[in-house]
Design brief:
This protein is an all-alpha fold. It folds into two domains: 117 residues; 53 residues, no CATH class. The protein contains eight helices and two strands. The longest helix is centred in the middle third of the chain and has 21 residues.
């Protein structure tokens, strides 16, 4: 199978898994996934037949172990640099999807942390406490955009006077402007 098509199918499966994991498949999460598919069509990366297949995939149920296995199989065809880029893209996709409905459900955080432990190569996991309290981390006096760490780090920066509630416009996974 063409790697672009294989990646497109994989990312939709990942999106559906994360969007449904909290028991609420919010329309904003669905819109985010559909938007991704539409961008692939608009940029002529996939054709209409593949888009139909992606829609079918979006209506199927997927489990974590299946997705981990599919991801590992997919990544096996690439070198280390390419794998790193692909995993970064998937991570950012997941982060944006989680943020799409503005609700950081414990199930989403838990699933994200499982994903990071499986593929993250020392990437920080999410701390449920930080999301529930809507706090951000500060780095050298500059707010970081929802970079959340483990509970020890969370407690350390919650005590830091430079850290506080998130502003409305800050979102999960955004890079600093």
């Amino acid at each position: 199978m063409d790697p672009i098509i294989e990646f497109s199918e994989l990312i939709i499966k990942i999106g559906v898994l994360f969007a449904k994991c909290d028991g609420v498949y919010d329309s904003r999460e669905d819109d985010f996934i559909k938007s991704f598919s539409h961008k692939l069509i608009e940029n002529q990366i996939i054709n209409n037949d593949i888009e139909k297949r992606l829609k079918e995939i979006a209506n199927e149920e997927h489990d974590f172990d299946e997705i981990v296995s599919s991801t590992k199989t997919f990544l096996a065809q690439f070198n280390d640099v390419e794998v790193e880029r692909i995993l970064k893209t998937i991570k950012e996709f997941i982060e944006k999807l989680i943020a799409a409905d503005s609700v950081y459900a414990p199930e989403e955080i838990s699933l994200y942390n499982r994903w990071i432990k499986e593929f993250g190569n020392n990437m920080p996991t999410l701390c449920e406490k930080c999301y529930n309290n809507n706090y951000r981390n500060c780095y050298e006096g500059k707010p970081q955009y929802m970079r959340v760490y483990n509970e020890d780090d969370c407690n350390a920066f919650l005590e830091n006077e430079d850290c506080g509630p998130l502003d409305e416009d800050l979102g999960l996974g955004q890079d600093e402007p």
